[in-house]
Structure formats: C-alpha cells, structure tokens
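Summary for the steering committee. The consortium agreed at its last meeting that each partner would contribute one worked example illustrating the joint modelling workflow. Our contribution is presented below. We chose a case with several input lines so that the handling of multiple components could be demonstrated. No manual editing was applied between input and output; the record is shown as generated.
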Amino acid sequence: DIQMTQSPSSVSASVGDRVTITCRASQGISSWLAWYQQKPGKAPKLLIYGASSLQSGVPSRFSGRGSGTDFTLTITSLQPEDFATYYCQQANSFPPSFGGGTKVEI
Amino acid sequence: QVQLVESGGGVVQPGRSLRLSCAASGFTFSSYAMHWVRQAPGKGLEWVAVIIFDGSNKYYGDSVKGRFTISRDTSKNTLYLQMNSLRADDTAVYYCARDLAPTVTYVFDSWGQGTLVTVSS
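What follows is the complete predicted structure of the assembly.
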C-alpha cells in the first residue's frame, strides 16, 4: 500500500498569510493526488484533484503542484474560513490512502 | 445540487451487525461509483469500500474485507453498508461519498454529513 506523509502536522498562521502544506507519497503516483479541507464536525470537501485542478467553486487562492512523490497545497492570503484541517489523498493505486492531515490554526 | 444523507449509525455491541444507508439526490445516482469512507474519533480518513455504477463490482479495504458489504438500490437512489462482526476499532463516523466521475477514480467530490457508529459493550 502507498503511504502518504504530510508536513507539517500543524501550522499557525494569520489572516493574509501564505501557507504551504507538503505531501509525500511512498512511491510514485503520477498526478493522482487530491486535497480535501475538513472543518470540525463537518465532512471533508474536495479542493483539488489531479494534483493541480481546482474543483468547481473553490477559491483561486488555493493551488496545488507536484507529480511523482512530492506535492504541495498552497493557500495564498489565508482567510478566516480557511482555518481547518487539510488532507492529501492518493488515487493512483488501490487502496486509496490519505495523509495524516495538517491543521491550519490561528 | 448533490445531496447525500447517511443514516443508521448508533451504538452496537462488539460482534453484532449494523446497516448504514445513504440517500442520494440531485444527480443521476445510477451513473456514479459510490464509496464509504470512515474517520475514527480524532483521527484521519480511511477509505472503506466502493461499488461501481451498476453494482457489478465492489472493492474493500483490508480492515473490513469479509465483514462489510457494500450495495446499492438504484430504484431507491440509496447506498448501503452492511457491517457484520463489528469490532471496537470500527468505531468511527462513516461518510458516503460520490466518485468524481462515472468510472472509479477514487476521488471523492461530494460527501454526506456522516453517521457515527460506536462499537462498545
């Protein structure tokens, strides 16, 4: 199975900051990488798929990059509603697997 | 708009069974693969199972294989998860999720609100 490792596990930031989260796969997954946002008590929400494709309705301040084993999610100009936990997920190999999450805190 | 509403969660003793349901609306249910994903309290996300659009193929994670069964009823636009031989480590919020595309991509573009299953004596 492919292991997904996110870093950092948590990050403290302020409104307006630029935040970058890293995700590393234990083996190459091409661009089969998705990012989700989850707020407390809520379901995850798809932000990005295919490593860099923005899901419909997601603000353009979210962007994703990478291929192979190393990926990043960047939030430019952090907004109050962006404080949440973010998960990466590989969709290249069965079974699909998630990273451990990165909590973006104030 | 796409809506997924889970039900059927609750407290159950170890070794017992439970069936979860997920009512779908706002899209052509019969055209999409559907998944169950779970999240133990305070933990990360774990994919559980998938059923393709016509129900002809089903796949499971190792931790539930042989104990859980995923199914769908197109006439009712409903996804199910039959959970047998439940264990304490099955305790989690269970989400149903739609696949991004009619084929199985393992990308989850719509999620329900989740239903909590607690396995405890």
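The longest strand of chain A covers residues 19-25. Chain A touches chain B through 21 residues (CB under 8 Å).
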